[in-house]
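User: I'm putting together a teaching handout on how multi-component assemblies are represented. Below are the sequence lines for each component of a complex, exactly as they appear in our records. Could you produce the 3D structure of the whole assembly as structure tokens, so the students can see both representations side by side? Please keep the chain order the same as the input.
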Amino acid sequence: DIQMTQSPSTLSASVGDRVTITCRASQSVSSWLAWYQQKPGKAPKLLIYKASTLHTGVPSRFSGSGSGTEFTLTITSLQPDDFATYYCQPYNTFSWTFGQGTKVEIK
Amino acid sequence: QVQLVQSGAEVKRPGASVKVSCKASGYTFTGNYMHWVRQAPGQGLEWVGRISPSSGATNFAKKFQGRVTMTTDTAITTVYMELSSLTSDDTAVYFCAREETRRFFDYWGQGTLVTVSS
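Assistant: Of course. Below is the structure of the complete assembly, with chains in the same order as your input.
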């Protein structure tokens, strides 16, 4: 199975900051990678698919990049609603393993 | 609009089984695979498996093979996940999630808390 490693595990930032989260795959997933946002007590929400395509309704301050084994999720100008945990997930095989998550906290 | 509504919280004894349901609406039920993902308290997301409502075909994560069953009832557009031989490690919130045709998850249920305790 493909292993996904996210870094950092926790990130402290302030409103207005630019934030970058990295996701590394143990083998190439091409561009078949999604990012999800989860808030406490809620189901995850899809943010980005195919590494860089924003899901409908997702603010343009979110962006994704990368291919192969290394990917990034960037939030430009962090907003109060963005404090949450973010997960990456490849979907190129019959195993939808998630990264361990990155919690974005208020500094 | 697409909605996935799950059954309510469950409390089970170790060794028992639990069956969680996920009722889908707002789209053609047989057109998309349905997945189950769980989240233990304070932990990350763990993929359990998926089922095709049209064919009944399933794929499971290796750690759950032999212990998980997924079924569908197309008449009431509902998917079920049954997990047997429960231990305290199975205490988690279980989510259903729709697989978009391009294979990522675009809609999620609200989650069902399963607590395993003696």
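A couple of points students might notice: The radius of gyration of chain B is 13 Å. Chain B has a mean pLDDT of 97.
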